[in-house]
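Protocol step 4 of 5: obtain the predicted structure for the target chain.
Materials: sequence only (see below). No template structures provided, no constraints applied. The aim of this step is simply to have a reference model before the mutagenesis design in step 5. Sequence pasted as it appears in the construct record:
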Amino acid sequence: MEAAPGGLGRCSCAFWLAVAFDVLGLVILLLGVFGNVFFYDFLIYAGAIIIFLSLIWWVFWYTGNIEVPPGELEDDVGLLKKGRGLAGVVRRFSTRLSSGIRNSLRRNGVARGQGAATPGQAKPKREGGRQVPVALEMTSPDNVSTVSATVTGETLRTETQAI
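Step 4 output (structure tokens):
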């Protein structure tokens, strides 16, 4: 990776924008300080803000000219060699663990993005091969009962249990 001719690097446009913002901001700031105008405070603040905004262009220019050897980019672009000591072992373990959790959630019927049921919402209960919703009925804070329904064949059976 070679720098552009002139020593400005690859992002010369960001460099010249930063210099232009600095010069413009400094001119406006000095005009507000030394100029004999009634809106001098506006010029001082505007010049300071423009100089502050030039920092954005300086950061773009600096980060655009950072050179990273290809050997250090392996992790970022997926070129990691699998058997490289402890880092490879940890990465394999992490991949297996996350894919195992993802697959077990799919097998248990939790769709992606649904997550667990909220406290006021009951989870579906499996009975007789079909999913049946379970509702909680509260008659008082100390008396909670569970009502469940089971569909077997063509009959509907309802049970109430006090908890």
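Step 4 remarks: The two ends are 72 Å apart (CA to CA). The mean pLDDT is 75.
Proceed to step 5.
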